[in-house]
Specification:
The protein has 4 helices and 3 strands, in the order αβββααα. With 160 residues, the chain is α+β, with helices and mostly antiparallel strands. The chain starts with 10 loop residues before the first helix and ends with a helix.
Length: 160
């Protein structure tokens, strides 16, 4: 009777899987950077746009990926002569998880109430800038597929 013995070495396969995993992680991070930057740009420029009186809120958005500052809106124009309304983008944020994380921050103490459209006293805000209104960030996230597609596109492009 003939016996056949076969041995297989999976070391090169394991090495290949590790390399692919690293490439996907790298591409995912790059895609996240592009997606959150696009979210900020859309939030500032597409309706409903960020409300604007002095420009301080508009100039105080920041984008972070994995706790690292990627972009701010500090270059947005400000109305002169209004005290205390300057750009104050957040420059540091604490990383909350070890997973890939992107964040868009509107860094003014009043940003949340203006975003929700209701003052802390319960009065609705009157948005005077044409095309601006509440939920200028959240409204874009309702079409989150657009931003996920940006991430997926970068991963797909890197895999070629």
């Amino acid at each position: 009777m003939t016996k056949i013995r076969m041995t297989t070495n999976f070391d090169s396969f394991k090495h290949g899987v590790i390399l692919v995993q690293k490439e996907v992680e790298k591409a995912s991070k790059e895609g996240m950077k592009r997606a959150v930057r696009k979210l900020m740009d859309d939030s500032l420029d597409k309706e409903p746009k960020v409300p604007r009186r002095s420009g301080g809120l508009e100039a105080s958005h920041s984008v972070f990926v994995d706790g690292k500052l990627e972009k701010t809106s500090a270059d947005r124009p400000l109305t002169s002569g209004q005290k205390g309304t300057g750009a104050t983008p957040l420059l540091i944020i604490m990383r909350l998880t070890k997973k890939l994380e992107g964040a868009l921050v509107a860094h003014k103490p009043y940003a949340a109430s203006i975003h929700e459209g209701v003052s802390r006293w319960g009065a609705p805000y009157n948005y005077t800038r044409t095309g601006s209104g509440p939920k200028w960030i959240q409204a874009k996230l309702l079409a989150a597929g657009k931003y996920f597609a940006l991430i997926a596109g970068v991963i797909k492009w890197h895999s070629k």
